[in-house]
Amino acid sequence: MPGGTEAIVRVGALALQGDVREHLAALRAAHCDAIAVRTAAELEAVDALAIPGGESTTMSRLIRAFGLEAPLRRRLADGMPTLSTCAGTILLSREIRDGTGDQLALGVLHLTTRRNGYGRQLDSFEFDLEIPEIGAPAFRAVFIRAPVIEAVGPGVEVLAVQGGRPVAVRQGRHLSLTFHPEMTADHRLHRLFVEGLERVVEGAA
Fold first, then answer.
1. CB proximity list for 53: less than 8 A, separation 6 or greater
2. Is 95 a catalytic residue?
3. Considering 23, 32, 174, 182, which one is annotated as catalytic?
4. pTM of the predicted structure, to 2 decimals
5. 95-146 pLDDT, tens digit each
6. Please, what are the domains in the chain?
7. Would residue 180 show up in a list of annotated catalytic residues for this protein?
8. Is 86 a catalytic residue?
């Protein structure tokens, strides 16, 4: 595996904007090697990538400014797994509504996603989500200027809903959330993602 560390898997957190430190801490609590990713070389050194929340249009500009668009598209095309939250989900979607003309839509996830679908910052909220994949108790999800998943395509499994809308989905080895799990002390969703990576590694051994 890339990196050659003692950990089973190495997961990067795209470190251009958003809750990078919180994601790194949650990933390490989920028992993997976690590093910040700002360069193409660092991207090549990881087995999977967490794409945090932030402002999706700003993140699009930063990805291009850091020369990461082509390397990121290449790794995604090669099957690199992702954990995306909030803005990260927008960036990976196939269709973005209320976006900008130059905004990245990397197209990995068969989703139609609307930016700021719940409203502005003042409309942020918390909600106890029932997520059967991680069991009880309910997961306290933090929604901050969250996107709304308006449609899911083939191969997308809905793991949790809020108000009748998908808020946690899985497509193959991609786990995508419209909320911020890193802002809580509950690391079960990060662990769910890491466990999926470990099963792939063990199957290839």
1. 18, 19, 85, 86, 87, 88, 144, 180
2. no
3. 182
4. 0.92
5. 999 988 889 999 999 999 999 887 666 568 999 999 999 999 999 999 998 9
6. 10-204 (3.40.50.880)
7. yes
8. yes
